[in-house]
Design a protein that fits this description.
Shape: globular
Structural class: mainly alpha
Helix content: over 70%
Order of helices and strands: HHHHHHHHHHHHHHHH
CATH class: Mainly Alpha
Number of domains: 1
Length: about 425
């Protein structure tokens, strides 16, 4: 079996994880999360939701890190589920990941176009820009994973610098952007018991802003010293992201207030509305961050598709590895083609729900698989994995019923397809 080349160090893996997480939610997740907790009337409810999302992400990250250290090969939870729980568990995780994250790729491409294409431009132009972004980043990934890491490093550095400037400008003009004076943070109070459903919904939205650490685990066959590098990289990337998101949340609540944040479609832009040049900077950073998330997503999905194709859970040609660049080039081309088709033809607003459903299923399997590890392979308490599994199930139940039904339907299609394939092969 052809193997991928181990070329990534800890810094490269951290950057790939940061590129996936920061671009996924910092520019988009806080406003819908604020709307979810708005009935509580307490700004503190959003911070509680952020803390809960971070706790779930940490529990899932420990499971991913613990499993990746024992199984340093491509595939992520698809591989872990197969090894620890059986082929069907692995397939459910892999299918959920591939389907959900392919939709997320399209969403990130469309997000890039929304910020990069001038306002008022025809919709076909936005879709074309999104498709071209997918093609360009897929081409970068096709040339080798070190190029992926190099591009991700520049993207992360640019976004972090832009966010730092944005937060400083927002605090400097606090009250100007809000329009009615500074919003006192001391007004934030804990969520009422009746508002916990809103807190869980908000946590579910914010959780997916943290989900990029899985990209590190899916690159397990391409990092040096994986038993040491993967857990360290996941922990560092997640810690940096938690700190950044906390700073952004506090800033937005202080400048816009809960009501203003919930009503905003571009909260970071609104927070610096008093400084037009900073608004341009925010749009540029949002476009670049979306590209970073898209780049990492494309790499992660292609590696999971590679692992599934090796086990014949996806078409066998997807397991091909490029003889020179040592990347799963057939899988990368196939994933990019599907994403391009989606951004050109589909309105993905309704598809984001089942994408979220698929990712939660993926992490549920990861936690259950990690719970079964013993001996020297156990690095974290089982209580963390039990909490992670329960939390994934709870957040899944807070999704809109249409999202849950769509997710179950897509999952059923995949399961039925595999069952037919096994029967024909037998």
């Amino acid at each position: 079996m052809e193997q991928l080349a181990r070329r990534l160090g800890t810094a490269d893996a951290v950057v790939i994880g940061l590129g996936a997480m920061i671009g996924a939610g910092v520019f988009a997740a806080f406003a819908p999360a604020a709307r979810a907790v708005l009935p509580t009337g307490a700004a503190g409810a959003l911070l509680v939701a952020l803390a809960l999302a971070a706790a779930v992400a940490y529990a899932n990250a420990t499971s991913s890190a613990q499993l990746a250290a024992q199984y340093p090969a491509s595939g992520g939870t698809y591989l872990y589920g197969r090894e620890r729980l059986g082929p069907w568990w692995g397939f459910v995780a892999g299918w959920g990941f591939v389907v959900g994250k392919t939709a997320s790729c399209a969403a990130m491409a469309l997000t890039f176009a929304a910020y990069a294409v001038p306002a008022g431009a025809p919709e076909p132009w936005r879709r074309l820009a999104a498709a071209l972004a997918v093609v360009a980043l897929a081409a970068a990934g096709y040339r080798g994973v070190t190029r992926t890491a190099r591009v991700a490093r520049w993207i992360v550095a640019s976004v972090l610098a832009a966010l730092a400037v944005t937060l400083v400008v927002a605090w400097a003009g606090r009250g100007v952007a809000a329009g009615s004076g500074p919003v006192p943070l001391t007004a934030a109070e804990p969520a009422t018991p009746g508002g916990w459903l809103g807190v869980l919904q908000a946590a579910g939205l914010l959780f997916f802003a943290f989900a990029g650490y899985a990209r590190v685990a899916t690159l397990g066959e391409e990092v040096r010293s994986p038993r040491r590098t993967i857990p360290r990289a996941i922990g560092i990337a997640l810690a940096i992201t938690v700190v950044l998101y906390a700073l952004v949340a506090v800033t937005l609540l202080a400048v816009l207030g809960l009501d203003g944040l919930a009503a905003s479609t571009a909260p970071l832009s609104d927070a610096v509305a008093h400084a037009p040049w900073a608004g341009v900077l925010v749009r540029a950073a949002a476009a670049v961050a979306s590209l970073g998330a898209l780049l990492a997503l494309l790499a992660g999905i292609s590696r999971t598709a590679l692992a599934m194709a090796r086990e014949r859970d996806l078409p066998r040609p997807l397991a091909a590895v490029h003889p020179r660049h040592r990347v799963p080039h057939h899988a990368e081309v196939a994933v990019a083609a599907v994403v391009v088709a989606l951004v050109l033809a589909v309105d993905l607003r309704g598809a984001i729900g089942f994408s979220s459903f698929g990712v939660l299923v993926y992490y549920l399997v990861a936690n259950v698989a990690a719970y079964t590890q013993t001996g020297a392979d156990r690095r974290f308490p089982r209580a963390l994995q039990a909490f992670g599994a329960a939390a994934c199930a709870a957040l899944c139940l807070t999704l809109p019923s249409t999202a849950v039904l769509a997710g179950l339907a897509v999952l059923a299609v995949g399961v039925a397809g595999r069952a037919v394939q096994l029967r024909l092969a037998g």
